C-alpha cells in the first residue's frame, strides 16, 4: 500500500476545489478528492443526477478543476461509453496527442447506480467498456429528501421507510463481479490510502472497472459532521462494510478486513448502528436479522476464498 507522504507528494493539487456546497463531513467530497488524487487531471467525469450535480456550484465558479459532465439519472454509464468512444476515435485520427491517455470516470450515487442507472451500468460491464464506474454509496436518495434506495440497509429509517426498511441492501459489487469484468473493489472514506491505491490500480487496467465506496451522510444518517470518519471506520471494524478486490475473478480481502474473517475480531455491530439516528428505533428482531446477514456475508466470502485456494483459476 502507498504511504501517506507518497500519496500527498504525488498530487499536491486539489482537483475538487474548496467553496463547493457539500454538507460538512460529506463522505462524497472525501471520496472524490482522493479518487482524483489517484487519477490526476487527465480525467473526464460523468455524474448522473445525485448530490454531486448540486454541490459543484454554478459555472463559471464550479468546484471541479477537470472536465465534468452532468447527466440524466439513468444515463451515467451510457454517456461515459459514448465519451470513451469519442476519445478513442480522436486517438485513432490524431495519434500521440494525448487522447488515449484520458481516463473516463463515472461518479454516481447509489440511486443512480443500484436503481435507476443499473441497466446502463450492466450494459457497459457486459461490453467491457474501458471506463471506471464509481458508486459513492450514502445508502439513500439524499439529495431529494432521504428516500430509501435498494442500497439502504435493513432497519434504517428514511422518509419513505418511517418504521425501518424491511429489505436488505442490494449487493452491487457481487452483481458487477458476476459480469466478469476485470476489476471490482470496495472502499471506505475512513481508509483513504486504500481508496487511493484502488483507483490507481483501476486506472492501469483496461476494460470496465467498478469501485463501490462507503460515503456516510451526516444529515441523512443522523450523526454530527465531525464523526463521519469514525462512523465509516466502525462500519469496517464491525464487518458491516467489507473491503476487498476482485481482479480477473480472484477475490482478495484488503488489509483492514483481512483479519475479520475471525468473528471475534469484529467490533460489535451495535457500536456502529448506535452512532446513527436512522437506527434509533431499530427493533431487537431487526438487529438480530442484520447480524445474521452480516455473518452470512462473511461466511460466503470465506467459502469463496477457500475455494480459490483449493481450486485456483
Major sheet characteristics: 8 strands, mixed
Q: State the CATH topology.
A: Rossmann fold
Radius of gyration: 19 Å
- Strand % is 5-15%
| CATH homologous superfamily title | Thiamin diphosphate (ThDP)-binding fold, Pyr/PP domains
The number of domains is: 1
| Structure annotation, total helices | 13
List the helices and strands in order. HHEHEHEHHEHEHEHHEEHHH
CATH class: Alpha Beta
Low-confidence stretches: none
* Major beta sheet, strand line-up: 2-1-3-4-6-5-7-8
Oligomer status: single chain
**DSSP, total strands:** 8
Computed structural class:
alpha/beta
Give the overall silhouette.
Answer: globular
CATH architecture label: 3-Layer(aba) Sandwich
Task: Describe the SSE topology.
Layout: H1 4-10, H2 27-39, E1 43-48, H3 51-55, E2 68-71, H4 76-93, E3 103-109, H5 111-115, H6 118-127, E4 132-137, H7 172-177, E5 183-188, H8 192-204, E6 209-214, H9 218-221, H10 228-237, E7 244-247, E8 250-253, H11 255-258, H12 269-273, H13 284-310
Parallel strand pairs: 1-2, 1-3, 3-4, 4-6, 5-6
Antiparallel strand pairs: 5-7, 7-8
Helix pairs in contact: 2-8, 4-6
Brief write-up:
The chain is α/β, with parallel strands linked by helices and 313 residues long. 41% of the residues lie in helices and 14% in strands. It has one domain: Rossmann fold, CATH 3.40.50.
Describe the structure.
- The chain has 313 residues and is an alpha/beta fold.
- It has a single domain (4-310), classed as Rossmann fold (3-Layer(aba) Sandwich).
- It is 41% helix and 14% strand.
- The chain contains 13 helices and 8 strands.
- The chain has helices at 4-10, 27-39, 51-55, 76-93, 111-115, 118-127, 172-177, 192-204, 218-221, 228-237, 255-258, 269-273, 284-310; strands at 43-48, 68-71, 103-109, 132-137, 183-188, 209-214, 244-247, 250-253.
- It has an 8-stranded mixed sheet, with helices on both faces.
- A hairpin with a 2-residue loop joins strand 7 and strand 8 (250-253).
Amino acid at each position: 500500500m502507498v504511504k501517506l507522504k507518497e500519496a500527498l507528494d504525488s498530487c499536491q493539487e486539489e482537483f475538487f476545489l474548496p467553496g463547493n456546497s457539500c454538507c460538512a463531513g460529506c463522505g462524497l467530497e472525501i471520496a472524490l478528492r482522493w479518487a482524483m488524487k489517484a487519477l490526476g487531471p487527465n480525467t473526464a467525469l460523468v455524474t448522473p443526477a445525485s448530490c454531486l450535480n448540486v454541490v459543484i456550484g454554478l459555472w463559471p465558479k464550479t468546484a471541479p478543476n477537470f472536465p465534468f459532465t452532468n447527466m440524466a439519472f439513468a444515463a451515467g454509464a451510457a454517456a461515459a461509453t459514448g465519451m470513451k468512444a469519442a476519445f478513442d476515435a480522436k486517438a485513432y485520427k490524431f495519434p500521440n496527442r494525448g487522447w488515449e491517455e484520458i481516463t473516463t470516470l463515472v461518479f454516481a450515487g447509489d440511486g443512480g447506480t443500484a436503481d435507476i442507472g443499473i441497466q446502463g451500468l450492466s450494459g457497459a460491464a457486459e461490453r467491457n467498456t474501458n471506463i471506471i464506474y464509481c458508486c459513492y454509496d450514502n445508502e439513500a436518495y439524499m439529495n431529494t429528501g432521504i428516500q430509501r434506495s435498494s442500497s439502504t440497509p435493513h432497519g434504517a429509517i428514511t422518509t419513505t421507510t418511517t418504521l425501518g426498511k424491511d429489505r436488505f441492501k442490494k449487493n452491487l459489487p457481487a452483481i458487477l463481479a458476476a459480469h466478469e469484468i476485470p476489476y471490482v473493489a470496495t472502499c471506505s472514506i475512513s481508509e483513504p490510502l486504500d481508496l487511493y491505491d484502488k483507483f490507481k490500480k483501476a486506472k492501469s487496467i483496461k476494460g470496465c472497472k467498478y469501485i463501490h465506496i462507503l460515503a456516510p451522510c451526516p444529515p441523512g444518517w443522523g450523526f454530527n459532521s465531525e464523526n463521519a470518519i469514525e462512523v465509516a471506520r466502525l462500519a469496517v471494524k464491525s464487518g458491516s462494510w467489507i473491503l476487498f478486490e476482485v481482479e480477473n475473478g480472484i477475490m482478495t480481502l484488503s488489509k483492514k478486513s483481512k483479519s475479520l474473517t475471525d468473528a471475534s475480531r469484529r467490533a460489535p455491530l451495535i457500536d456502529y448502528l448506535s452512532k446513527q439516528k436512522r437506527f434509533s428505533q431499530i427493533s431487537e428482531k431487526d438487529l438480530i436479522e442484520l447480524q445474521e446477514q452480516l455473518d452470512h456475508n462473511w461466511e460466503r466470502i470465506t467459502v469463496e476464498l477457500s475455494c480459490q485456494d483449493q481450486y485456483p483459476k
